[in-house]
């Protein structure tokens, strides 16, 4: 599996692509998400089916991203921020 981390806010999505150690900021709209996916497909090529998007729920702000993932059959994990925080604390101890 290849994880892509996304931080969704009202107007932007911050994206981290570990394969190239790339941090991007895109607009939080369908056009920008489609463009991002095209770039990611070029990077991951035959491994695109192993791709997973990971992001926290942000209510209406993450709607376009969730819908796009569903449409393209992209696996996505929507992580609870509290659980993520607790997990981070646990592995640091």
Q: What features would you describe in this structure?
A:
- The chain is an alpha/beta fold and 93 residues long.
- The chain has a single domain, classed as Nucleotidyltransferase, domain 5.
- Helix content is 40%, strand content 30%.
- It has three helices and five strands, in the order βββαβαβα.
- Strands 3-2-1-4-5 form a five-stranded mixed sheet, covered by helices on one side.
- The model has no long low-confidence stretch (mean pLDDT 87).
Known CATH architecture: 2-Layer Sandwich
Look at the helices and sheets and give the structural class. Answer: alpha/beta
Regions with little confidence, pLDDT below 50 for 5+ residues: none
Topology, number of strands? 5
Give the helices and strands as they follow along the chain: EEEHEHEH
The name CATH uses for the topology is: Nucleotidyltransferase, domain 5
Discrete helix count: 3
Helical percentage: 25-40%
- Count of distinct structural domains: 1
What would CATH call the class?
A: Alpha Beta
Q: How would you write the strand order of the largest sheet? A: 3-2-1-4-5
């Amino acid at each position: 599996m290849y994880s892509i981390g996304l931080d969704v806010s009202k107007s932007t999505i911050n994206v981290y692509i570990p394969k190239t150690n790339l941090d991007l900021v895109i607009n939080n709209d369908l056009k920008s998400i489609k463009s991002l996916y095209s770039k990611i497909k070029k990077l991951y090529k035959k491994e695109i089916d192993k791709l997973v998007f990971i992001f926290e729920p942000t209510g209406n702000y993450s709607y376009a991203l969730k819908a796009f993932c569903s449409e393209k059959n992209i696996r996505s994990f929507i992580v609870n921020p509290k659980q993520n925080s607790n997990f981070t604390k646990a592995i640091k101890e």
